[in-house]
Every structure is written in structure tokens, then in C-alpha cells.
């Protein structure tokens, strides 16, 4: 039970003697999701429209959520909103409910062209999840302390002058992806011993530069703000946009220039899906549809603890100029042109093993 539902239940119990007319809603959806999807202002509207309760459970990382769902835990949920590679794997495992054609066509019509091409192609109607939020991964900087033109690559992360001032987000494979791309290695294809050996050398060089490992987004934001960190690896607009919303436009996520013919940025995407075979499957699909609506997409993109772009092109019309600046909308076209589309990393287990072994040796 999260805080919102605890408060609701408490108010019902406390007011039971004076408000005997309070009646529990007949249906409850169980929702596993990232922060933001569980905003009371958002879910409250859906609950009112559909005369149901949504019991949300927030996740800390998508791999853990996937592990829980794929090992039988999916039976405890009706709807999930997590990162797209893990949704793809859940879908391949037959755990997601089919998206109705009418809903798919509606979402297709309101999406940016890039999302139509990559996530909702007309020739492929077998994908059973819908994209909801997105952003990009690249060096995050504070232009009060560093020059933006110095961060057109990941080279500063290895520079001796930045020793002890490079932040590495302790978020699984996220800090690894930029290093692989910088080394000219495509992490989205299976890697052999040659590529893993080169990654080992890169990890060793990074760790010799004594980076600061950051476990929490707020700590990373503080490091950027006070100048104790010159940049962060493994994050991007997910971390910077909320600071920009607060008026700190010197905080920015940069997309590096292509290197060795390989695009250096990474486009990440979240999505929503209903769990197949549950008793409230049709109601769950309504919640999936709700998360892609123009109104819900606007709330998801700007009203939570973090700010993130949405695939819904209609939402852009609702932004003020200040909101557009916060979300770096002027950089969207460049980001798409110079970024990889994040998907399943086939050799992630081997890469993480190399990462952990080098980290152990450096400690």
C-alpha cells in the first residue's frame, strides 16, 4: 500500500461513523509503475471516470520489476509501466494483453513520426505495449562551471583534470552504454571476447580516474548544482529537466557528436501494458489507453518529480515557452538524429560481469 492509498483508507476509517454513505468501489486495478504514473491527480481522474481504485506500486528499476513479473509475479498485477526493453521481453514471454487495433491506430495517429516508425509500425501489429514517456542519455553538465563544447564527446570522463569529479549513476547498464559507444562498440548486438576486452580497458581507465558513484538522482542533481561534479555518466534528461523546470537552465543534457561512425546518444522509452489473462483485463486496457491520452501525457511529462517528454505530438501544443525550454524541445530533432534507440542489450550479463570485476579490482 502506498502513501496515497494509506491516507485514503485512513480518512474512510476515521470518517466511517459520520459518513456511513461511503461505499468502497467495486473494482481495484493493481498497477506496477515508474514514479509519475502514480500521481494522485492523474490516477484520481481515471478512478473517477471508471468507478474503480488503482492500487499503485512504484518501482526503483525496470530489471527488478521484470524479474518479479517474469517469475510468476505478473499474476499480482493488472497494468505495468516500465522501460521498453523489458516490456519487449514480457511480450515475448506471452505475458501482455493484445492491444486493440482501434487503440493502436489512435495512438499511432497522435505520435511523433519517429515513434510511429520505431514503436508502432503499421506492418507490425504484434507489439502489445504502447510508448508513454521518453528522453535521451548523454553527458549532463552545468554550463556555469564547464563549457558545453568540451562535452561533444565522453572524453572528459577520462581526462585527468576531472579526476574525482565525474559522476557515474549506479543504475545497472545505463553508465555502461555511453562508454561502449565511445569505444566504437555497439552494445545492441552480441559481443565477443575482443569487444569485452576493449570494454574492460575502458572501465579500468574510468575507474582509475576515481569517479563518484551516485545512487540517487537528487545526489546527482546536487553535485551538478554545486560544481563538485563536472558531468554525469548514465543519466540524461531524466535528471536534468526537473532542474531546468525550476529555472536552472544552466543544467543541460548534451548529445555527443557521432564517433567512429557510431551515434553516441541513447533514446530511452517507457511504455504501458496490460497483463494478459487477468480478471480485469478490459479495465486494465482502459488504464493503458489513459496513460497515452493527450491530457495524461501532459501530466506525465511535466507534473511529476521528474520531467520527461512524451511520444504524443499533441502535447507539444500545450507547453508554454518556459516548458519547452525546460524539456529542451529545441534539441529533439538533433537528439533523434544522433542517438541509438535503446533496446535489449544481448550481452549485458557478460558486460556487467566485466564491469563488476574491474570495479572490485579498483577498490
Q: How many strand elements? A: 11
- Gap from first CA to last CA: 39 Å
Secondary structure category: alpha/beta
What's the shape? globular
Task: Tally the helices.
Answer: 15
Rg (CA only) = 21 Å
Q: Could you describe the largest sheet, including whether it forms a barrel?
A: 6 strands, mixed
Average pLDDT over all residues: 91
Range of helix content = 40-55%
Percentage of β-strand residues: 15-25%
Task: Sketch the topology as an H/E string, one letter per element.
Answer: HEHEHEHHHEEEHHEHEHEEHHHHEH
Low-confidence residue ranges: 1-22
Question: Could you explain how this protein is built, in words?
Answer:
By secondary structure, the chain is α/β, with parallel strands linked by helices. Helix content is 41%, strand content 15%. The chain is built from 15 helices and eleven strands. The chain has helices at residues 3-14, 40-50, 62-70, 84-92, 101-110, 113-119, 176-182, 193-208, 217-226, 237-245, 281-292, 294-302, 321-326, 332-337, 348-362, and strands at residues 27-33, 52-58, 79-83, 130-137, 140-142, 166-169, 212-214, 231-233, 251-253, 265-274, 339-341. Strands 1, 2, 3, 4, 10 and 11 form a six-stranded mixed β-sheet that branches. Strands 7-6-8 form a three-stranded parallel β-sheet, covered by helices on one side. Strands 5-9 form a two-stranded antiparallel sheet. Helix 2 links the parallel strand 1 and strand 2. Helix 3 (62-70) runs parallel beside helix 4 (84-92) and helix 8 (193-208) packs parallel to helix 15 (348-362). The chain is globular and about 60 Å long. Mean pLDDT is 91; it is low at 1-22.
